[in-house]
Design a protein that fits this description.
By secondary structure, the protein is α/β, with parallel strands linked by helices. 36% of the residues lie in helices and 17% in strands. The radius of gyration is 15 Å and the shape is globular.
């Protein structure tokens, strides 16, 4: 799997079509904010949530395996107990790169089996960092978060 580096993150954002797994029906949830921001920035985003038929007028998929045409990149915004299943489905769907983020500051990824699945299946994994922080021209709080990580030497190089 290797250490997450800046190039892997830049390559992730260079792809303009991806899935967002775990999009919430709650418009104020982190997952919806991320999903909406990606759409606003011109990305073709396929929302994934087995409990929703649509999100903001776009078809919502029950599984990443249902997306046509298939996606190579996905962001999984899920609680620990759901990540393993989602990553297994991503592997079956041919997803090549996954950004795994668990929306709680300082929590990190607590399902180590999910990380192992990515390594076992040869999927590039980005984890340990908030996806908002690396968006070009991101909002102030996310730039501040990045600046703090740079200051303490934890920002990817």
């Amino acid at each position: 799997m290797g250490i997450v580096n800046k190039k892997t993150i830049e390559d992730f954002y260079a792809v303009k079509r991806l899935a967002v797994i775990g999009v919430s029906r709650d418009k104020h949830d982190y997952s919806r904010s991320f999903y909406s921001e990606m759409l606003r920035r011109g990305y073709d985003v396929a929302p994934v949530n087995p409990n929703l038929e649509s999100v903001d007028g776009r078809k919502c998929y029950a599984s990443v395996k249902d997306i046509t045409p298939a996606v190579d990149h996905a962001v999984a915004l899920l609680p620990p107990e759901k990540t393993e299943h989602a990553l297994t489905e991503c592997a079956a769907a041919g997803v090549k790169t996954i950004w795994l983020h668990q929306q709680h500051i300082g929590q990190g990824v607590t399902n180590t089996r999910a990380i192992y699945i990515c390594e076992e299946k040869g999927i590039k994994l980005i984890t340990g960092f908030c996806p908002f922080m690396f968006m070009p021209k991101t909002a102030f709080p996310h730039r501040l978060h990045g600046a703090i990580l740079k200051l303490i030497g934890a920002y990817p190089k």
